[in-house]
Design goal:
There is one protein chain. This protein is α+β, with helices and mostly antiparallel strands and 727 residues long.
Length: 727
């Protein structure tokens, strides 16, 4: 038994979540060989607690139980307590969360699991109060019962562990005996299924709270609406986009989205802000803007990107993970939402002596005095003395600008300018409040999602700065987490890590490689820099080498050379982040147009392997369905041969909804292409570029789909029209 395991070792960890528990009297161990070996040597169960830094009930359980001396004594004596950050170890979380959902019918964090010394689970749950409460067993009592059962009914515990582990393997690791080819029309079938579950009154999915954003389903509805022209499908997507942007899910003072709402009508959020939500929702709003032309969606996307730049960006370019839901109150307590909520008196005090000229040089300062401005803000955002959250108000858009203009007898433009001035002042005042904690670890996969959002924002909104943000983040991750010599991507970087290489010791998972590969590909599309395409191909090659199983014809979540757990999971379904299998499959299909490796064959095999799942429950596997749709219909290849894309072309491409677009940029001449091929380690030009030089010395565009191409043209509108005629 190692002396090091007889103390709390979390002060040695890089994860902010683990460090939050470093002062607990519990002898917490990280998930590592030393902790697992101690459990085997002592022959005692492992108590596994999984959470993350922005998790409200994780903090509650820490305050009630893990900071308690009596609980700590029992945990230290009868168990090996291990604490895991689910954001760092999604593989461990996936296995035991799957068991929890199978056994209890629900899941969530903190996840509490009791394991045999070799890691097989035999008791699972989520949050437990210290003492029995509302039908939940007390944690201290539970520890006594489990310790006694381990001593007196060991065989029963072992049998249960075998059964639950087998169930987890069946759910996560096993593949169907016979692959099934998919018939055409999967997209339309999936959209119809998604449409049946839409909340017609409030948007989103589910008839009760909590209500989570589902960006992949929004993409599904938008794509189906574009293809079929069904108005009901489009309305379901836009109703959801509108509801999320006007409700409490969105931060109307500081911008960006919270994690989810606790109610059906999107009024009160769970206040943490996650990088992945803001990445994927940005992409959904950009798509909504392209398809509908609604400038409100572009504005939401733009403001969300600005929030990420302002509050979640490392000075050197990478993106941080989360902002906590809790922050300090004036009396020193920590409460959920304290940073974000307002009273009418606070609004009036914040807007005292505000000058409306702050909005722009033409703002009519005579329209509103400060008292009237405060009233306008309260009317706009539903701020009342009774509030909607514990006596205070989470801002929601409750009155349209035009109605306010009528009520205040002024123009809509004057209302908009006044509200913008008020937002700016309220944000400045709010910045003086104690801020929520920020989890400053940089995760490769989550950064990949945000890189895609910024790169797509650069294309759709014609903002070169967004492309710079995407590239800076890509280079940050590549420099700190990518080992080019052995093709290894690490998952996490943390500035103040005690690890020799900045906390980058955790092997990357499929989501890290897939999300980052998509981000690198999107950077290439936004900038035309072949180095980003080369990096995307390098990551795709590692997906083939480490995650593709030729015998099972599937992509696993953990690398073949990684740690061996009780089961090797696959990630088929979308959850808080998109399915890593779905994104990997989609990006392999896109890169197949350039690569010499059989990326397309791998993607097709994965889709066929899981064809039965997709047919039976397409909405559960939306990202994989979208990849299957790309396989069926083919990518929209838009090859631009030019030294730079003309600005008019950029505007046209950016505003055009092309959901499976591959914007393929290449040098104007074949002489220029030679250096690209060398960078990409290609002996000859792929069909995407072969014979497609610029014609007549002018930028030239080629539109292709499924090996059929338009004539070369100097008119991008003509090329896009070809897509419409060959849909």
């Amino acid at each position: 038994m190692s002396d090091s395991t007889q103390r709390n070792r979390l002060d040695e960890e890089a994860s902010p979540y683990l460090r939050q528990h470093a002062d607990n009297p519990v002898n917490w161990q990280p998930w590592d060989d030393s902790a697992l070996e101690e459990a085997r040597e002592r022959d005692v169960p492992i108590f596994l607690s999984i959470g993350y830094s922005a998790c409200h009930w994780c903090h509650v359980m820490e305050d009630e139980s893990f900071a308690d001396e009596a609980v700590a004594e029992r945990l230290n004596e009868d168990f090996v307590p291990i604490k895991v950050d689910r954001e760092e170890r999604p593989d461990v979380d996936s296995i035991y969360m799957t068991v929890c959902q199978l056994v209890t019918g629900r899941g969530g964090w903190p996840l509490s699991a009791w394991l045999t010394p070799d890691g097989r689970p035999f008791y699972v749950g989520t949050y437990f109060p210290k003492e029995p409460k509302r039908g939940m067993p007390g944690f201290l009592e539970l520890l006594d019962n489990i310790a006694n059962s381990w001593e007196e009914d060991r065989q029963e515990m072992e049998n249960r562990a075998d059964q639950w582990t087998a169930a987890a393997k069946d759910q996560l690791e096993n593949t169907p005996d016979a692959p099934q080819s998919l018939e055409s029309g999967l997209l339309e079938s999936a959209a119809k299924t998604a449409l049946r579950g839409v909340d017609d009154q409030h948007g989103g999915w589910g008839s009760d709270g909590p209500k989570f954003p589902q960006p992949a389903r929004i993409h599904l509805l938008l794509r189906a609406a574009d293809r079929t022209g069904r108005q009901a499908t489009l309305e379901a997507a836009t109703k959801t986009l509108d509801a999320m942007a006007t409700g409490g899910l969105y931060d109307h003072v500081g911008d960006g989205f919270h994690r989810y709402c606790v109610d059906r009508d999107w009024t009160v959020p769970h206040f943490e802000k996650m990088l992945y939500d803001n990445a994927e929702l940005t992409r959904a709003y950009l798509a909504g803007y392209q398809l509908t032309g609604d400038a409100t969606y572009a504005d939401v996307a733009r403001r969300t990107l600005e929030f990420v730049e302002r509050e979640l960006t490392h000075d050197a370019g990478g993106f941080f993970s989360t902002l906590d839901a809790q922050s300090e109150t004036p009396d020193g307590d920590h409460e959920e939402g304290a940073f974000y909520v307002w009273t009418p008196d606070q609004i009036e005090a914040a807007l005292e002596d505000v000058e409306l000229e702050e909005a722009d040089n033409d703002a009519p300062s005579s329209e509103f005095d400060t008292e009237t401005l405060a009233s306008l803000v309260c009317d706009r955002y539903g701020i009342t003395s009774s509030g909607n959250f514990e006596g205070k108000t989470v801002l929601n858009v409750t009155q349209p600008v035009d109605d306010l203009a009528d009520a205040y007898d002024c123009s809509s433009e004057a209302v908009e300018r006044a509200l913008e001035v008020a937002r700016t002042r309220l944000r400045a005042v709010r910045e003086e409040r104690p801020r929520p904690r920020r989890d400053e670890k940089v995760l490769a996969g989550w950064n990949g999602l945000m890189i895609s959002a910024f790169a797509e924002g650069a294309i759709v909104l014609e903002e070169d700065h967004y492309a710079e943000m995407a590239v800076d983040a890509l280079e940050f991750v590549r420099t700190r987490l990518w080992d080019e010599s052995n093709g290894c991507l690490r998952r996490r970087y943390k500035d103040d890590s005690t690890d020799a290489i900045g906390g980058a010791e955790i092997d990357g998972y499929l989501e890290d490689y897939a999300f980052l590969a998509r981000g690198a590909l999107n950077c290439y599309e936004a900038t035309g820099d072949v180095e980003h395409l080369a990096f995307a191909l390098d990551l795709a090659r590692e997906i083939e080498d480490e995650f593709w199983d030729d015998a099972e014809e599937t992509l696993y979540f953990t690398p073949e050379s990684g740690e061996s757990l009780v089961t090797r999971p696959q990630e088929f379904s979308d959850s808080s982040t998109p399915s890593s299998m779905g994104v990997a499959t989609d990006v392999l299909l896109a890169l197949d147009h350039v690569a010499t490796e059989p990326f397309g064959d791998i993607a097709e095999a994965v889709i066929e392997t899981h064809g039965g799942r997709l047919r039976a429950s397409p909405v559960e596997y939306t990202s994989l369905c979208l990849a299957a749709d790309r396989l069926e219909t083919g990518s929209l290849e838009l090859t631009v041969a030019a030294d730079s894309v003309p600005s008019a072309w950029r505007a046209t491409i950016g505003e055009t909804y092309l959901p499976d677009r591959l914007l393929s940029r290449r040098p104007a001449t074949d002489d220029g292409l030679d250096s690209w091929l060398e960078t990409l380690n290609l002996e000859s030009a792929p069909p995407l570029w072969a014979g497609r030089e610029a014609r007549d010395g002018e930028p030239t565009v080629y539109a292709c789909r499924n090996r059929a191409c338009s004539p070369p043209t100097h008119d991008v509108d003509e090329a896009l029209e070809w897509f419409v005629g060959n849909a």
